[in-house]
Fold:
Amino acid sequence: MTASPIDSLPALLPLSLTPAEVEERLADPARLARAAGDVQSPDGMRRSAVLVPVLLHEAPTVLLTLRAATLSSHAGQVAFPGGRIEPGETPEAAALREAAEEVGLDPRLPRLAGRLPGLVTGTGFHVVPVVALLDPPVSLTPELAEVAEVFEYPLSRLLDPASPERRSGVFGGRTRHYWSWPHETQTIWGATATMLRSLALALRD
Structure:
């Protein structure tokens, strides 16, 4: 696999935001739409939603999960809580329901900020990322059949203009390009990395 420099983005110094600044920026629909234009769901594509939970610590973080190694799809990958949108559900309702099922997040706690641009995955899903704000402390009980670990990723890393890296690799005989975020123990790439980049663009100046 090879890495190439990220596209040019302005630096933000210092690389930190207060909880109030995070909340203010994520309340701006124009900021949430900064990433590449929202992808419309093609006919027949499976619709899904994920919750992008931002914890408003003194140094804010974003909540991520490590999927269980026994799952039939995306096993052992870093992800946001989420899943299919059931008939009659909005993306917001689906994201909250899935977060409650996967990590035990009380659906009354998140304050929904809005949606990041949707994207289509290589596995045939149209994903709607729903951003939510949470005031710590938050009590979570992961469903071990689905989630091996819950961890927090510093928002300060999203503000770093040197991140993420653009990488490439061969998958199914084809060369594909994807984003990758730095972490000491986890590999954060693919659709999750793309959604983190959308969140980063919403937060950066």
